[in-house]
Amino acid sequence: MRKRKTSADHDSSFTGTLLEGSSDLKQCHKKTDAASDPGGSGTAMGRRYRRGGLMWRLRKILIWVLGIYITIPVIIKVCPSIQAKLVFLNFVRVPYFIDLKRPQDQGLNHTRNFYLQPEEGINIGVWHTVPSVMWREAQAKDAEWYDKSFQSSHPVILYLHGNAGTRYTSTQGPLYKTNSVLCSLGYHVVTFDYRGMLSGSPSEKGMTSDALFLYQWIKQRIGQKPLYIWGHSLGTGVATNLVRRLCDRGMPPDSLILESPFTNIREEAKSHPFSMVYRYLPGFDWFFLDSITANDIRFASDENVNHISCPVLILHAEDDAVVPFQLGKKLYDLAAQSKSLNGHKVQFIPFPSSLGYRHKFIYKSPQLPNILRYLLYAPRACNTPKRKEKLKSHHMTPLSNNV
């Protein structure tokens, strides 16, 4: 016989169905609540996804940076000519939109622009600025007048600027004041652009050859009047090369002034701020410094001072970030011990960091005229104790914060 369902059985079955349905409803409500809950597990998953995407982007950027970091030394090693361009920076002209043919447009209306040809196929631009006392007379004068102006009693300074500079930036911009000081003291100032600006390619040998050519060109016009050589930054390397050649020929200049000098190009390249990111890279010398040497670039002022026989003045600011102060001090220490400079005045003038002169603002020193007068006009003599006491009385070393 078929068993008849009782009301109790029906109620039990119905209750079970309701319980199962309520369980499904609860799960559905949980999903709905999770989706609508901003602080729930769905939001956490989204955050993890975004965080993972950000980390992936950062890793990608890091890989690119690391790739560039490794690629640059390899490229320089394979193509050492790139390193030469970084040393000379002849392709950098700041400011760019300047007509170097017209110095009068820059307020230098007592300056003549002209061109010389040290060798076939090489042209260099030259500026000749007459002393301030000849300013009025120089207005609208021609090349013949400027040539004759060399016959005046005023001495001449051949100025050798640093890399990335031109005959404009060596007399205008921050260095304009240097030129003003020199002209106000009664000097002719002659400066030129290294080869590679107009024609040819820059090289240490070529730059030194051009400087020698211009030195001889000036000397032919001034005769026995004083001719001084002033170098700044990279120009100090050209200056010591030039003076060494002159001294080897028995015709030293009257004095050599080195502003912000270095010992040699390898030590300067290793100390330069641009090399900071690679300075501790294994093989730094092999990748970078040997590439400079491969281009026959040395600028070994530390060797040149052993062949120089004329008074030497070194100016350097303690806060110089381009050419570290210790390199200028090291060069002075070597010069002071040089046998060839024995009997010649060798002076080092440090400028404290508090003055803020850095790499190219030494012209701001109100003591600069006195420093130059002492070096360029005082008779040549060795650094005896008596002379050192005299230097101290002139407040020349070291300069204080009050000057």
Automatic annotation (TrEMBL):
It catalyses: Hydrolyzes glycerol monoesters of long-chain fatty acids. SUPFAM superfamilies: alpha/beta-Hydrolases (SSF53474). Its EC number is 3.1.1.23. Its main location: endoplasmic reticulum. Keywords: Endoplasmic reticulum, Glycoprotein, Hydrolase, Lipid metabolism, Membrane, Transmembrane, Transmembrane helix. The chain crosses the membrane at residues 58-76. GO terms for molecular function: monoacylglycerol lipase activity; phosphatidylcholine lysophospholipase activity. It is a single-pass membrane protein. InterPro entries: AB_hydrolase_1 (IPR000073), AB_hydrolase_fold (IPR029058). It is found in: Endoplasmic reticulum membrane. It is an enzyme of class 3 (hydrolase). Residues 155-246 form the AB hydrolase-1 domain. One of its GO terms (cellular component) is endoplasmic reticulum membrane. GO terms for biological process: monoacylglycerol catabolic process; phosphatidylserine catabolic process. Belongs to the serine esterase family. Lysophosphatidylserine (LPS) lipase that mediates the hydrolysis of lysophosphatidylserine, a class of signaling lipids that regulates immunological and neurological processes. Represents a major lysophosphatidylserine lipase in the brain, thereby playing a key role in the central nervous system. Also able to hydrolyze oxidized phosphatidylserine; oxidized phosphatidylserine is produced in response to severe inflammatory stress and constitutes a proapoptotic 'eat me' signal. This is Lysophosphatidylserine lipase ABHD12.
